[in-house]
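User: Just a sanity check before I run the rest of the batch. Below are the structure tokens for the first item. I only need the designed sequence back.
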């Protein structure tokens, strides 16, 4: 059995990579297939790792919609031909900062 802290590390690392890959902004993201692939792959890892966090850890940050993150992973992994890049960008821009703060908060409490 893995130490659950490894999942926090995966989430943190994935967020950092996504931030690095998207630093040039939305236009660059939409123009580069490699960046899109890298971001989507890291979102899959991030989402999978959130599903493996203990429920009592997730309860420390009730403002995060953990269920939706897991559902998003299923879309990325299983409905990959229908991925909407506008939704991916929206997640990157509007949801990852809050998730990053939540992961940091959980890390300090567990």
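Assistant: Here's the designed sequence for the first item:
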């Amino acid at each position: 059995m893995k130490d659950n802290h490894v999942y926090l590390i995966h989430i943190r690392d994935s967020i950092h990579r996504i931030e690095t890959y998207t630093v040039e902004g939305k236009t660059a993201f939409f123009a580069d297939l490699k960046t899109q692939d890298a971001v989507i792959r890291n979102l899959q890892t991030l989402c999978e790792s959130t599903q493996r966090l203990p429920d009592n850890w997730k309860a420390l940050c009730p403002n995060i919609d953990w269920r939706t993150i897991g559902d998003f992973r299923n879309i990325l992994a299983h409905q990959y031909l229908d991925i909407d890049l506008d939704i991916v960008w929206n997640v990157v821009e509007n949801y990852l900062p809050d998730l990053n703060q939540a992961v940091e908060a959980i890390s300090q409490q567990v």
